[in-house]
Design goal:
Keywords: DNA-binding, Repressor, Transcription, Transcription regulation
CATH class of the largest domain: Mainly Alpha
Distance between the termini: 29 Å
Largest sheet: 2 strands, antiparallel
Number of helices: 11
Structural class: mainly alpha
CATH architecture of the largest domain: Orthogonal Bundle
Number of domains: 2
Strand order of the largest sheet: 1-2
Protein name: MerR family transcriptional regulator
Oligomer: single chain
InterPro entries: Cbl-bd_cap (IPR003759), DNA-bd_dom_put_sf (IPR009061), MerR-type_HTH_dom (IPR000551), MerR_fam (IPR047057), Meth_synthase_dom (IPR036594)
Helix content: 55-70%
Organism: Hymenobacter humi
Number of strands: 2
Order of helices and strands: HHEEHHHHHHHHH
Strand content: under 5%
């Protein structure tokens, strides 16, 4: 189980720490424990709940109404939301919440919906990469459950391999050759996406290179 500081929650949810404290004090939304030195520590369930609250408030619900929902009702309300694949922040929040509960079906659904609306390259750039950056913050903070990260990475690799396999076959001659590599132990999702983008660009010029974040 993860242990998050309030600054971790701020970075992962996009909600300011003072707002999190206010919601906690006024509505009892989160239930942190305190260390011997009186520092708040939050668990996976607190993070998942905060992400769901953020999603519902982002869809126009008042915090006072959201706070009255049980965990089950809040989850149902999130699932009932018409997912806007152009609202990247909420898409990332939803994926992170699904990862925390090992919800494989929901993760696949969210990736597929974003891909259907945005196209595969934009899904990777605007949804998958920001999601991986959030997960990286959790890793640095020592709050990442490896089994959660492995599930999401495995599903994302499946999407990348399937999208690459669906591209037209490259000709044996007249095609530029590229050597792709990463330092040992680096995240290889970026390598798989670069492979996809180069193969896609070999047949149809694309604009991904102008917007793709630099990752080693």
């Amino acid at each position: 189980m993860g242990q998050f500081s309030i600054s971790d929650l701020e970075q992962l949810s996009g909600i300011k720490a003072h707002t999190i404290r206010m919601w906690e004090q006024r509505y009892g939304l989160l239930r942190p424990v305190r260390t011997a030195t009186n520092i708040r520590l939050y668990c996976d369930e607190d993070l998942r709940r905060l992400l769901n609250v953020t999603t519902l408030c982002g869809r126009g619900m008042r915090i006072s109404k959201v706070a009255q929902l049980s965990d089950a009702d809040m989850q149902a309300a999130v699932l009932a939301c018409g997912n806007d694949a152009h609202d990247y922040h909420l898409q990332v929040n939803a994926l992170l919440a699904a990862m925390l509960t090992f919800d494989e079906v929901r993760i696949n659904q969210l990736f597929d919906e974003a891909t259907s609306t945005l196209g595969f390259e934009n899904m990777m750039l605007h949804v998958a990469y920001p999601l991986l950056q959030r997960i990286g913050l959790m890793w640095l903070a020592g709050t990442m459950n490896l089994s959660q990260e492995h599930l999401l990475s495995h599903l994302l690799r499946q999407k990348l391999l399937a999208a690459t396999d669906a591209l037209p076959a490259l000709g044996s001659t007249g095609t530029r050759r590229w050597l792709l590599f990463l330092p040992e132990h680096e995240l290889h999702v970026a390598l798989l996406f670069m492979n996809y983008a180069l193969r896609a660009g070999a047949s149809t010029p694309c604009t991904w290179a102008r917007t793709c974040p630099s990752r080693s």
